[in-house]
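This section describes the prediction task in plain terms. A model, or a person checking by hand, is given the sequence of a single protein chain and must write out its three-dimensional structure as a string of tokens. No templates, partner chains or ligands are provided. The sample shown here is typical of the held-out split.
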Amino acid sequence: MDNTITTLEMCAGYGGIGLGIKNIFGERLRTLAYCELEGFAQANLISKMEKGLLDAAPIWNDLKTFPYESFHGLVDILITGYPCRPF
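The expected answer:
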């Protein structure tokens, strides 16, 4: 039986929320995709993927064009960081 828990990370920032949740579930947790607008945060996500700290997965830069329908039925947890800190 596959006990993998799958996630999507929206407004992922540097991936901190996902890293925290991974501390709870360990290797059972698998992120399928990230969505992050800011270039610096995207570079940070890529760096963490290259170091093996985050799951290697595609990064989308726009919530409005993210292909949610492609992940229907495949995701157990939707992780979201509150976007646009000044607001």
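For orientation: The radius of gyration is 13 Å.
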